[in-house]
Design goal:
six-stranded antiparallel β-sheet
């Protein structure tokens, strides 16, 4: 069964999807399973959002595009009893990896958007 309802907004650094027929807790588990399964580190902040980080910022600065570094802020919140919102924001631009690094972050963000658009 597909839970994806629609894309509420999409910009270069932030993407928001709406889902129906699933609770915020269930969607949070799916999101967590995706990121942890793809070797992201999880950092829960007090604001209700979760930060997922892949790679090392230090290594990215030192070796540029040879070392991958991605950082995304994810928030899952219920809109009403039937609808849940998933917001994914880039928290790293990839600029420290030059043009290749920018493209790596863009491609990873697009991969994530595609995955969560097919849930």
């Amino acid at each position: 069964m597909s839970y994806f309802s629609e894309t509420a907004s999409s910009a270069s650094g932030r993407h928001v999807n709406l889902y129906t027929g699933i609770s915020a807790e269930e969607l949070s588990k799916i999101v967590d399973a995706y990121f942890v399964g793809n070797r992201y580190k999880k950092d829960t902040s007090g604001s209700g959002s979760v930060t997922y980080t892949y790679g090392s910022r230090f290594m990215r600065i030192m070796f540029g595009a040879f070392c991958k570094y991605f950082k995304f802020i994810v928030a899952v919140r219920p809109i009403n009893e039937n609808t849940v919102e998933l917001s994914i924001s880039k928290d790293s631009t990839g600029f420290s990896g030059g043009a290749i690094g920018l493209n790596q972050v863009k491609n990873e963000f697009n991969k994530i958007k595609t995955y969560f658009g097919n849930i």
